[in-house]
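hi! just following up on the protien thing from before. the input was this:
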Amino acid sequence: DGIDFDVKKLTLPLWEKIVDCVSRRYKGKVKAYEIWNEPTVPDFKFAPGLADGSPDNYFQMLKSAHAIIKRNDPAAIVVGLGGVEVFVGGTGAEARLAESKAFSQRVIELGGKNYADAISVHGYSWDECRAAIWDAYTKNTLEYKNAWGKDVWMTETGQRSDQNADPTCTQSKYYDYAYAAYINAGVKKV
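and the predicted 3d structure came back as:
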C-alpha cells in the first residue's frame, strides 16, 4: 500500500491503483464510496491533471472507480457527483451554482448515470436563514435527482456555531429548515 502522490499530478493509472488498494483493503467495511469531494469548488480543482475539476476528467474517475470498486466489493455503493452544491452564497453565487449544474449535466451526457448508484450534494446556507435558501435547497436537489434518476445523499451540510452573519440563524434553526428542505426533495441519506 503506502501510495505517495501529489494530487496535482494525479493520473488515471495512479487513481485506479489508489481505488483498487482502498476498495480491496476495506471490502465489507466501507459500504459506500463518494467519488471525489466538491469537484466544482475552486479549492478542490487541482490543475493540471486528472483532478482538475473538469466534468470529462471526473467522468473518467467515476467510471474507472465504479468498475474497480464493484469488482472488489460488489455490494459497495458508488456515490457520484462528489457533492455538488445546492446553494451558493456570496459574490459569484449564481455563476458557481450554474457551473455545478453544467458539470452534472456534462457527466450525464458522458454516461455518468451508468457508474453511480446514488449521487451526492452539499448544502450550506452560508450563515443565512431565509425561505429563499430552503426553496433553493429543495429546487436544486430535485433538479439533480430528476436529471440523474438516482437516490440523493446530502453528504455535507451544516451551520457554524459562532460568528453567524444572522444571529437568529442558530444551528438548531438551520437543521429545522434545512432538513425540511431535504425531506421535501426526497433526499435518501443525510
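The chain has a mean pLDDT of 92.
The longest helix spans residues 55-72.
cheers
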